[in-house]
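From the shared-data thread, chain only:
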Amino acid sequence: MKKIILISFIFFIPLLPGLSVLAADATQAANQKQINDLKDRLATKVAELRQLQRKAIFGTVKAVSASTATIETKTKDVKIELTDDIKIAQIIKGTRTKLTADNLDKGDQVAVFGEFDATLDLLKAKVIFIQAAPTQRIAGMVTDTSKADFTLTVKTPEGKNYIVDIETVTKIAVWTADKGITKGGFSKVTVGDTIHVIGMAAKTDDRISASRILDLGNLTGTAPAATASPTVKPTP
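Structure, as tokens:
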């Protein structure tokens, strides 16, 4: 029995180097597979990063729908996606205010931050900040007042007419030669007065939301001629 075991051992000794080589080859093949898998994952991640790039744009809202919007920039129009988790904000009366996509309107000046998908040519918006309208100053003569709409119509020396919206935050001051500047009000502004207006430009270039108004009174002593209302003819 011992002779048989000894003979078997002697027979398998020459095979041991070959078995070691086979084991080493199997281990190397497994390692190479892991390396290849890692390379593939890295290549996929790089492709995703190249496809989705963080991007910020600034421009004017040209069009808006339930799920997308088009922003007009200095170079081109950019289509953005309005997702459910998008964050929209605006500084209103000095306070950062959270808004929704429903508050996004055509003509708004916006800064958009998100991920640009080069394949779809689409900016997936994460944050939209609505910029405050630029400050505008005008001066001219009041040609009309509307107590119903809380508006003034002002004609500038250049002949351009503006509609001035009186807001709840609008501050009106009156200047007189004897008292200087005193507190005024919308009801004290009359046709013929010369006023200086500081406010925010509206979405049309002939309208201003007033923040401050200085009423200098009627400097000419005459009121401008009232504009005749169009006559409506009865239908025969």
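The two ends are 133 Å apart (CA to CA).
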